[in-house]
Every structure is written in C-alpha cells, then in structure tokens.
Amino acid sequence: MKMKNIRLLFMLGMVAAVVSCNNQTSSENTELASPVSVENVKLQSIRQYINTTGTANATYETTLSTEMSGKYHVATNPQTGRAFKLGDRVKEGQTIVRLEDQAYENEVAIESAKLNLEISEDEYNKQKSLYEKGGVTLYELRNSEVSKTSAQYNYEGAKIKLSKMNIVAPFTGIIVDLPYFTEGTQVASGTEVVSLMSYDKMFMEINLPEKNISEIKIGQETLITNYTISEDTLKGTVAELSPVISTETRTFKGIIQINNPDLKLRPGMFVKADIITAQKDSAIVIPKDIIMTGNRGKYVFVVGRNSTAEDRWLTIGLQNQESVEVLEGLSVNDRLVIDGFETLRDRAKVKVIL
To answer: 3-state DSSP call for residue 93?
Structure first.
C-alpha cells in the first residue's frame, strides 16, 4: 500500500512537471515573438542641409512723394479701367497719381516753348540751306543754331517741370500703400502719396554660426518655406557671404536671393531656409528616428532568417532632420524594423504584422 502511494505521488509530480514545462515554454514563446513593422531597404536621394531663418524682403521698394503742390487725382489703371488701388500692379513709367495746377501750367507755357522750338528749327534749316549756297555767312548760321539749341533746352525744361506734376512708377511693381486723399484736394509738395514694392525676386539676410563658414558657399541652392504656404517650397540661392566673424555673436552674415514668380511669398514674412550643402541621388537612406545608440555606436534591427531580429551596426553618411544615409551596415532589400524596435534584442523572435 505504501509503495502504491509513492508511485502515485511520483506520477503526479511528473505530470505537474510536464505541464509546468509546457506552460513555461509557451510563455517564453509568447514573450519572444514581439510584433514589429518592417519595410524593405531601398536606394533613395538625400540632401544635407544647414537650417536658418529670416525675414523675406522685397528686392525693390520705394515711397513716392509730390515734388509740387496741386489738386490730387488718382490715375486710371489701363488694365482694370478704374483708378489705381492697393495691390494693383503697375509698369515702369506708368503715372499713378497726377496733380493739377493751372497757374503753374500757364507759367511753364509748354505750348509756347514747343512753338518757339519749331520756329527756331525752321529758321536754322533755312540759314543752313542759304549758307551752302553762299547766301549767308557762317556767323549768321551759328547764331541761328544757337537760337535753335536754346529753344530746344527751353522746351525740354518745360516738359521736365510739367512731369513733376505726375507721380510715375520708377520700376514695375505692386502698390503696397496708397494714402487716401479726396479727389481734387490740394496737396502740398513733399506729401507721400504711394509706396511700391517689387517682390517677384526677394532676398533675406541671414546670420550663421562660425562652425558653418567652411560649408556655406556662394551659389548653393536653398529651399524656402513659410507656414502660410506649407504646400509650396520656393527656390533660392546663396548670393553673398561675409568673410568676417562677429566677435559679439560668433556668426557671419549672408544674403539669400529668393525666386518668387507667383508672388506667394510676401515682404515681411518670416521664412525658413534650408541651404543644401551636400546631396546624393542614389544611396541607402533610412528614417533617423529608428536609429538607436549602444556601446559600439549606432544600430538598427532587421528581420533575418527564422523570424529573428538582427542588430546591424551602422556607419553614417549624409543626414538631415528626417533621414540618414547608411554607408555600411545595411544592404538593399534588407527587412528593416521601423516599428516595435524599442524593446528588441539581438536574435529575439519577432512577428511581422505589417
């Protein structure tokens, strides 16, 4: 009886051990089969940037004031058939505002100056013809030429005086300020009446850290973005660089020219500039945020044979805020773990879910 009890206890112990072993094995398998997401490594392009910020400025800007006093009138925009308004585009040489002063115009007497010029030109041509035939002396011809020249200067001077009654665009641009005056109101000389800007090409001043002075070169392509036009990236170029480092800020100055053909960027906007210092069209490129750091350097995980994780130690090349070029450590078509890598270890079992 005693022997039977011993055997029974032994058998129960064996069964318990087997069940416990099976449960442990199942628990280990569940723990090690970590769910991960992967993507195949492929060749891509990558650019390395130096980032900076600044304010976009118009290439040309001016505020025009009256040179004479007179009655104020806004000129008609030939493109719209109405008076010029804020935001209208004007061409170089177009009159935007004109002044009227009848007394001044009478004083200039441009029609009289024009008629006097015509008479002087006719007299000179007559004297020249007579001189060629021996009818007048050289002295008489020269006197006639002097009279014609004086009449011409008087006429040109009259035109200049009258032109001061018109406010003319010195370049093609956009009206950005047009102070309101009632039509026909008398305005004094020196009154600001219109401001223009041309910003299809713009520029921004930058200040870069001293450490970047050997990387930044004139002519480097620059990508310009602004939060109000986040779907568009404009192109710029490093146009000027100062060779001097500021002793106060330890920075050096530069100027970036910006192409803005559709006028999406506006003067005064705060923009971000990514100056491209290096680029490759075909390289192994991976997301920067999946790279981990260990005792041997930087590494990532790939899914190898038998659904196990393999750590790969990397040699890094070009990089930017989002991506990194891998010079050594990965090959094209490796199954790179991009999600679920945080708790992995080398040779751990994994289950690919995506």
So the answer is: coil
Report yes or no: 166 and 95 within 8 Å, Cβ to Cβ.
yes
Give φ, ψ of 164 to 5 degrees. -70, -10
Report the 10 Å Cβ neighbour count for 26.
10
Number of other CB atoms surrounding residue 72 within 10 Å: 22
DSSP state of 308: B
Q: Which of 195, 153, 199, 156 is nearest to 177 (CA)?
A: 195
> Under 8 Å CB-to-CB from 258, ≥6 apart: which residues?
56, 201, 202, 203, 204, 222, 224, 234, 235, 236, 265, 271
Distance, in Å, from the CA atom of 236 to the CA atom of 201, rounded to the nearest integer, reads 9
Q: Under CATH, what is the fold of the domain 67-195?
A: OB fold (Dihydrolipoamide Acetyltransferase, E2P) (2.40.50)
Q: What is the pLDDT of residues 302-341, one digit of tens each?
A: 999 889 999 999 999 999 989 999 999 999 999 999 999 9
Q: Where in the chain is the domain with CATH 2.40.30.170?
A: 49-57+198-279
pLDDT tens-digit profile of 199-254? 999 999 999 999 999 999 999 999 999 988 878 899 999 999 999 999 999 999 99
Provide Rg for the chain, Cα atoms: 41
DSSP-assigned letters across all residues of 178-225:
-----TT-EE-TT-EEEEEEEEEEEEEEEEEEGGGTTT--TT-EEEEE
Q: What does the alpha-carbon distance between residue 204 and residue 53 come to, in Å, rounded to a whole number? A: 9
Q: Which residues pair with 173 in a beta bridge?
A: 90
Distance CA 255, CA 270 (A): 15
The torsion angles phi and psi of 267, rounded to 5 degrees, stand at -55, 135
pTM of the model: 0.72
Superfamily of domain 49-57+198-279: Efflux pump adaptor protein, beta barrel domain (2.40.30.170)
